[in-house]
Amino acid sequence: MSDKIYWEDIEIGQEFALGEKRIERDEVIAFAHEFDPQPFHVGEESAKGTMLGELTASGWHTCCMMMRLMFDGFLSKSSSLGSGGLDEVKWIEPVRPGDVISGRYRVLESRASSSKPTLGICKVICEIFNQDNRLVMTCTFTQFMGRRDSTQTP
Q1: Which domains are assigned to the chain?
Q2: Arithmetic mean of pLDDT over the chain
């Protein structure tokens, strides 16, 4: 018996904790310089005159960190076959150097594929919180999962 999580093991409403990550200043700045060099992401001085007024992580950086948390906390243990894409990303509060983020992966919907008997399809939401348990980001998307018994028909 495998410990791998298959589509059949998933229930609507089920949650998986995704662990934690401390946000480091140098990582925020390095990501920003490479991918999102807006003033509030590249340094403290340049951030002072912006709407945020301080150095914050790019929302895209937060998405990347969420992906790592999601892989470590769930996907690496599952029969994940990827995703059909994101439905919605919401950046609710800024993520700052020194913050410790954690995540929760929650199943909203689940169904067997009608065209591929080896595939289960889940709609999920990933919620990211800071160290004060404040919601800082949500992401909803479709998750494809392998089925334990690929000879089953939907």
Answers
A1: 7-146 (3.10.129.10)
A2: 95
